[in-house]
Amino acid sequence: xxxxxxxxxxxxxxxxxxxxxxxxxxxxxxxxxxxxxxxxxxxxxxxxxxxxxxxxxxxxxxxxxxxxxxxxxxxxxxxxxxxxxxxxxxxxxxxxxxxxxxxxxxxxxxxxxxxxxxxxxxxxxxxxxxxxxxxxxxxxxxxxxxxxxxxxxxxxxxxxxxxxxxxxxxxxxxxxxxxxxxxxxxxxxxxxxxxxxxxxxxxxxxxxxxxxxxxxxxxxxxxxxxxxxxxxxxxxxxxxxxxxxxxxxxxxxxxxxxxxxxxxxxxxxxxxxxxxxxxxxxxxxxxxxxxxxxxxxxxxxxxxxxxxxxxxxxxx
Length: 316
Prior knowledge:
Blueprint: E1 11-14, H1 28-39, E2 47-49, H2 61-75, E3 81-85, H3 90-103, E4 107-110, H4 124-137, E5 142-146, H5 157-166, E6 170-175, H6 180-190, E7 198-201, H7 207-211, E8 217-220, H8 223-238, H9 242-259, H10 267-277, H11 295-308
Parallel strand pairs: 1-8, 2-3, 3-4, 4-5, 5-6, 6-7, 7-8
């Protein structure tokens, strides 16, 4: 196994989906085709696998290991791969971290454990211990996944600072605080620390506004469909070219509105349907309890794809 590619914690980092067959088994052929399609986008700095977008909640440890190994074989010599660490318990998270390190991942995206809901913000030592255990198990750089406070999984500002002080392998946060004022505070404070911690925005429903605040990059499941548009928008904002950024954002807007409407839990379901509509995967199968989209919503996604310029047709 060759050494993992260096992860810089900046730039555009799409999170890919997993294709399933009609019996809900992992469809390796279509999953890898999708990965190749995304990896072919010029200007990416890394790709994330085994994240939210891949329905990680419904995947076994063996499936996660298999997907990472296949992904590394497919594109690991071209792009660093970030592997998600999604587990309710810290020991299970350690097992995933060790597996990802052994397979050859370049970095880890550490989700908040579900066991921290119902008041975990009041026990900062829980979050600190979780990250310390993962960091003790691997030398890979870590990305802290920050959730909105309203979900019960978001870390308070002071807790994140304590994690950064105690766990130097945390190099970035995937920021989904969903609060523009707090998001800007994260960017200004974390990226200017003596040991900077980069902010990778995942505010894909208001991406242009988020990028105007100066995060180091973005990490988003929407990149499974619109990686090229995300690169174009990131570059335009980096170049302070507002006119060009607005033009790109006009293409992103209809899909952002379609992906992130209520119920929010169907966002990656919708992205998967778009991949099928675009001919990038054979079928948009999701594992229960997620359910297929209604035909009316699929027609609305077609309209959004046309409006974005990704699909030929006449927008209504």
